[in-house]
Amino acid sequence: MSGKIRTIYDLAKLAGVSAATVSRALARKDVVNSETSERIRKLAEQHDFRPSALARNLRTRRRGAIGVVVPLGHDRGQHLSDPFFMTLIGCLADELTESGFDLMLSRVIPNQDNWLSKLIDADRVDGFIVIGQSDQSGVLDRIAANYLPMVAWGGFVQGQIHCSIGTDNFLGGRLATQHLIDRGCRKIAFLGNTQAIEPSLRLEGAKAAIRARDDIILVDTPTHFASEVSGSDIADFLSQIGDPPDGIFAASDLIALTAIQVLATRGLSVPGDVKVIGYDDLYLARTSAPPLSTVRQNIAAGASHLVGNLMKRIGGEVTGSVILNPELVVRETT
Predict the structure, then answer these.
(1) Exposed e or buried b per residue across 221-256, where buried means at least 16 C-beta atoms within 10 angstroms of its C-beta
(2) What residues have CB less than 8 Å from 10, skipping those under 6 apart?
C-alpha cells in the first residue's frame, strides 16, 4: 500500500485484517491473539500512526469534554465577562486540562424548564459543571435525581438534591456585617440581588449579625437589583433610603467598587464617611484604590473540588456537597 497511513481503515488494509481488529489491537484488548496484535502495533509504529482522540473516545464512549454552563434566570443581562465568572472559568479550565478534558462553555437564558435536559440529550460532553444556581435550583434538583455526572458552584440549602460546592455564604455575610458593626457602623446597606441563592444567604447572615442589636439598621435592596449593577442603580437606591448609610455590605467585589465610585460623586469618603466591604476577593479587590475589604472565597480550591467531584461522578460514584469556609480580609475600605 502506498501513501501515508491516516486511518485505522488504511492500517487494516495493510495488515489484512478488519478495522475492528485494528481498533482492539491498538487498545490492547485480549480478544485479539498476541501475534496479530503485536504485528498491528509494529505496523502502526513503522508508519507513525496514532489513533485520534475522537477514535479513542468512540471506543470508550468518552467525549473528552465537560460542559460548563452559566444559567442566568434571575439576571438575564449579566455577561460572562463578569470578573468572578472569568476567574472561576479560568481555574476550571486549568483543572480540566490536567484531568484530560476540554471545556465547552455555554451561557443559558432559561426560558423553559427543559434547558438542561436539552444540553444533556445533545450528548456532546461527559458531564456538566453549572456555575451558579441562579433561580434554577429546582431544575438542578430534578435533573440530579436521575443524572449523576453534574455538580454546581453555589450555595447549599438543606434538602437540595444536586451536588453543590461553594462558600458558607451565611457565615460570610455574618462575618462581613459583624466587621462593619465592630468598625462602628450603625446604618448598614446591603447591595445585591437576592433572587439567587448565594446573595440571599449572605443577606440572611447579615440579618443574623444584627439580630440582637436594637441600635443597628440594616437596609437591603429590592429583589430586582441587578448583579451587574450600574452606578445609577446604586445612586437611586441611596436616594430612596434618605440619610446615607455609614456602612455598605456588597454581595460582590464589583458591586462594592461601583458603590465606592457613587459615594465619591456624592462627596462621601471611604472609609471616613462610609465603610465598604465586598465579597469574593477577586484580583481587582486587591489592586483597587483604596484596596477593598472583602470576604474571600477560595475560588481555586472550589474549582478543584468541582472537577474532583465530577470525575468521581463520571466514574459512577455519588458525592456529597462541599461547603468551604469564607475568610474575612480587612483592607483599607473599612
Answers:
(1) beeebbbbbeeebbbebbeeeeeebbbbbbbbbbbb
(2) 1, 3, 4, 49
C-alpha to C-alpha distance for 315 and 212, rounded to whole angstroms: 48
Exposed, middle or buried by CB within 10 Å (0-12, 13-18, 19+), for 285?
A: buried
Q: Is the pLDDT of residue 320 over 60?
A: yes
Strands (E), the chain: 65-71, 102-108, 128-131, 150-153, 164-167, 187-191, 217-220, 247-250, 275-277, 294-296, 322-324, 327-329
pLDDT of 211 over the 60 cut = yes
Closest CA to 149 of 16, 269, 316: 316
- Please tell me the pTM assigned to this model: 0.78
Residue 222, pLDDT score: 61
Burial of 108 (0-12, 13-18, 19+ CB in 10 A): middle
In one-letter notation, the amino acid at residue 18 is S
**Three-state secondary structure call for residue 150:** strand
Q: What pLDDT does residue 322 have?
A: 96
Is the confidence at residue 279, as pLDDT, over 90? yes
3-state helix, strand, coil in the chain (%, to 5): 40, 15, 40
- CA 62-63-69 angle, 5° bins: 125
- Whether pLDDT at 74 is above 90: no
Could you give the C-alpha distances from 104 to 20, 274, 323, in angstroms and in order?
30, 42, 26
Contacts (Cβ under 8 Å, ≥6 apart) of 309: 151, 163, 165, 319, 322
Residue 11's nearest CA partner among 54, 40, 48, 38 is 40
Instruction: Please answer whether residues 201 and 170 qualify as being in contact, where contact means their C-beta atoms are separated by less than 8 angstroms.
Output: yes
Q: Is the pLDDT of residue 79 over 70?
A: no
- Min mean pLDDT across 122-126, 316-320, 321-325 is at 122-126
Cα-flanking dihedrals φ and ψ of residue 270, to 5°? Answer: -125, 120
What is the band of 212 on the pLDDT scale with cuts at 50, 70, 90? confident
The C-alpha atoms of residue 83 and residue 70 are separated, in whole angstroms, by 14
Residue 216 pLDDT exceeds 60:
yes
